[in-house]
Amino acid sequence: MTDASEPRPEPAPESAADALPDDLDVTRYVGPYQFPGTHRRRIAGWWYLGLAVLTAAGAVASGNAGLIAATVVLGLAGTYQLLAAWPLRLDQTEALTVAARTVGFPVGHTSGQLGFRGLRSRPSWRILLFSADDPPSMRGLVELDGVDGTVQGEYLEHNPEDWSQYGLGTPDPA
Is the pTM of this model over 0.85? Predict the structure, then answer.
């Protein structure tokens, strides 16, 4: 319990109000968002391999077993980074186009997510699509390979959501 005689902390001045740092403020950017490419993993991979060479030289010069272990770890990390640096050849617009062709119904609202599959983290797009009618009567989920654009899987169904309480139609009796 706080005593009323204790001084209270002063409120922060207006200049110290909550605000995003300039590098996180996205309102100044104009144009479509571009997903970062996984090819940037090559930069880290080459750094790891360069450090592995330096630690190997240090291990040979000093005979330090810890540096030998560090060389092995850095070499493995660098090799993995280079192997996992898949080029993202299918951008979000192309992924949406392929997914819309795959589902076979006129597409309304969509949502895309870039994910990764497997030990080598191969990029893949997961696109959620709703039909263009109001309310949407169909929905689908399509997974596409981000490197070559092949369809990895698809799932289509009648939209089970009941929009009648909002005056937007009746549920589909599918």
Answer: no
3's tokens: 């005593």
Give me the amino acid identity at 41: R
What is the C-alpha end-to-end distance of the chain, expressed in Å? 61
The 10s digit of each residue's pLDDT in 128-149 is 999 888 788 888 999 999 899 8
- Check: CB of residue 52 under 8 Å from CB of residue 71: yes
Q: Read off the DSSP letter of residue 38.
A: G
pLDDT tens digits, 28-77? 666 666 666 677 889 999 999 999 999 999 999 998 889 999 999 999 99
Domain ranges of the chain: 38-83, 92-166
Mapping DSSP to helix (H, G, I), strand (E, B) and coil, where does residue 142 land?
strand
CATH 3.40.1110 fits 92-166, yes or no: no
Distance between CA atoms of residues 167 and 174, nearest Å = 20
